[in-house]
Batch of 2 targets.
Target 1
Amino acid sequence: MKVIKEISAIQDISDYYRCIGKKLALVPTMGFLHAGHTSLMLRAKDENEIVVVSIFVNPAQFGAGEDFTKYPRDFLRDYHICEKSGVDYIFNPEGDEMYKKNNYTSVIVSNITEKLEGKFRPGHFTGVATVVTKLLNAVKPVNLYLGQKDAQQNAVLKKMIQDLNYDTKLIVCETMREDNGLAMSSRNTFLSPEDKARTSVLYFILNEGKRMILEEKINDANTIKKHIAKILKEHTPDFELQYYEVTDNTELDPIINLSEFEGEVLISLAAKAGGTRLIDNIVFQKYRNE
Ligand code: AMP
């Protein structure tokens, strides 16, 4: 496994593999790797000859007052995890390699970025779209592996890839969870053991929403939201629920009448537990109620 720091070097490596007909995949990460990341790497290795993992904590996707400087970093630990997962190259550019002096260009995806997370993290998805554009142009992968954990990010990048005519295929892998259902995340390291145990409520309320839709045939998302609020008030009144939305999984628009809806339903949430902001979601197929 090799560590590459320069954009021109990873471009040359990518060109070489394309030239000899070997499929190259990219798994973009911000490091401090966990089993969610390794599941992406293993799937990528299974489906491609060459796997590049990028490790870059992207300053452009953090807002003022967010945790850019505090974000956990441990390159040596990440190196060993990548090596064990069969990764071929780690692309680990410095900040001034990715964002050269007098960088005037950003990639703005409209509409879909203003919903859900966008209401709480203005500018976040411009940072994401810009860095992923840079990564796609640096690594030039055939396949791009992302986790279901970041559902809106996937929807935004899917649109961006279509709109900008990238010939990279996006593959979304399922969310890896702790034993109590908490979605794995580098930020979980900020949770106290007590709060971490109590986060089981988040996966529970996602599944509770799904159950109400599919089994109780509830038509109105507000009924579900009221029930969820009651559960949270009883079990974790100190957790701050920022949103809990029932939307379609493409445009991320609220589903007004669930009984009429047919397609993929996304239930997504953001909550703060002891100061740590967590996001999670589930997605499932629904057919029109007979
Ligand atoms: P991050 O390092 O948090 O930016 O995540 C890098 C990639 O790993 C993104 O595509 C995430 O969706 C994915 N990822 C993060 N957490 C998980 C998880 N628990 N299960 C599966 N994929 C994940």
Target 2
Amino acid sequence: MIETTHIWQVDPERPSYDELQPAVEVLRRGGLVAFPTETVYGLGADALNPEAIAGIFEAKGRPQDNPLIVHVSSLDMAYSLMGNPAEQPLLQQLAHRFWPGPLTMVVTASSRVPRRVTAGLDTVGLRMPAHPVALALIEQLGRPVAAPSANRSGVPSPTSAEHVWDDLQGRIEGIVAAGECKVGVESTVLDITVVPPVLLRPGGVTPEALEEALGRSVVIDRHVHVPAVNSEVIGPVRSPGMKYRHYAPRTPIVLVEAGDGHLERLRAVVDKQLAEGKRVGLLVTEEAATPQSDVPTIVMGSKHRPEQIAQDLFRHLRAVDNLAVDVVVAEGIDDGGVGLAVMNRLRRAATERV
Ligand code: TXA
Ligand code: MG
């Protein structure tokens, strides 16, 4: 246990040197600090310090075989962590288009990267976050920062400093607080060690945008569409994070996939649960919500604005347990654009899919 977890309030747009210095000093001596990125809050440690990295796994209760993303503030910093120069042109091409931003590229790791970071793999995920606070923090430290999402393992990722506090107070030295995250779902993870590149986790950068930038199609790993339910593993996984049930409230979630007659299917599932005497809650789009219904409802936003649904998704998933019901029936949205990332998170939070 750590005596006090500090909260350092900083300017989200123009954090000053002095505002960030206490957090930088904690990182420098191997401590853990949560900080905002444009996707979700990260739990940061000096990426080149193996003991500091071990602390991340402990604070989160993270499985040891799940590797961490390393955050950089410059292309040179990224190159210094790469073990295969042949991968640099593609990284540079995609960085030019998407960095800083919600794209993590998996590359061959150089020997500078501690094996604790990569969980023993010979590859490492690199990303330059598009948040002034994250970039300034890395730059001021002058070293790459390893950071998973700053939540206890298995629960929804944090998109505000309050979420981090709820999960990690007393387990980390401080939180750099700077408001809510704009993207709301984590970065897209793309393996560029293979040709063609393989999308391992959908996120803030859409497959459509990647394909446009690459001028070729991207392979989407099948686990993206058919995630493991309740830790059941469907064949070997290339990104260890894919095999765990994740983003999950305590309340069971039945997910009704989008598609033909999905509102009828949704109603049928609700009626069946009610007939079994269960208290039912809903997590639905604005279009499907019926205001006068006495079923407790969380409205996710409009299905025509998946970016908005993405931004608020984890806040809504965290609110599911507050409904105090036996089961929540969730409405799926279309897989297009950032909808793929939203659906990947909902599928992994679900206990059952219809
Ligand atoms: O948006 C984000 O990516 C946030 C912010 C803080 O940057 N970070 C984040 O980290 O979501 P985390 O640890 O929650 O998720 C990292 C994902 C996991 O699914 C992990 O398995 C995968 O990236 N990953 C990391 N390194 C990898 C590697 N070398 N090969 C394959 N997958 C990797
Ligand atoms: Mg995570």
